[in-house]
């Protein structure tokens, strides 16, 4: 069984006291400070509340020219699947973890605006609507043409049962 935090803190302060002269009140303060530091480290290692605390507010992480990755605090123009894979996350898991909507782009506002403008210029919205309507019409036509399956006659089932017996 491992040492308790109190034991570890006392050993650290004792080692420090062998190298520097410390008064009794200094030792008590050093013990408290060391114990608190060890306790914080243990909480972070176990994935406590401080481990998941974002460096900034998630709503403020998406800026005009960059997005801040809440996992490592670095700035990117876009959070790609490859970038998030380093942290064992998919874009959907990242959005869920940090409270973003499923439709929120993980890109800077400027990049999203540029893409939106390009898509409108190319008429991608209208093309998508036409493609969806054509697909639905083709599916309805195929369904109408498909022959209806007939149920197997009951006599065959009865014959099979007699043969097995």
What are the SSEs and their pairings?
Layout: H1 5-19, H2 24-45, E1 67-68, E2 75-76, H3 81-85, H4 91-98, H5 109-122, H6 124-145, H7 154-164
Antiparallel strand pairs: 1-2
Helix pairs in contact: 1-2
Kindly describe this structure.
By secondary structure, the chain is mainly alpha-helical. It folds into two domains: 5-45, no CATH class; 55-141, Orthogonal Bundle (Arc Repressor Mutant, subunit A). 59% of the residues lie in helices and 2% in strands. It has seven helices and two strands; from the N terminus they run H-H-E-E-H-H-H-H-H. Strands 1-2 form a two-stranded antiparallel sheet. A hairpin with a 6-residue loop joins strand 1 and strand 2. The radius of gyration is 32 Å and the shape is elongated. 5% of the residues are buried.
Sheet-strand content, in percent, reads: under 5%
How many strand units?
A: 2
> Briefly, what CATH class of the largest domain?
Mainly Alpha
Tally of domains: 2
N- to C-terminal distance: 67 Å
- Output the helix-strand order: HHEEHHHHH
Task: Provide mean pLDDT, rounded.
Answer: 86
Helical content band: 55-70%
| Low-pLDDT stretches | none
Q: Main sheet: which strands, in order across? A: 1-2
Number of helices: 7
The main β sheet shows up as: 2 strands, antiparallel
Alpha-beta content class: mainly alpha
**Shape-level CATH architecture of the largest domain:** Orthogonal Bundle
**Rg over CA atoms:** 32 Å
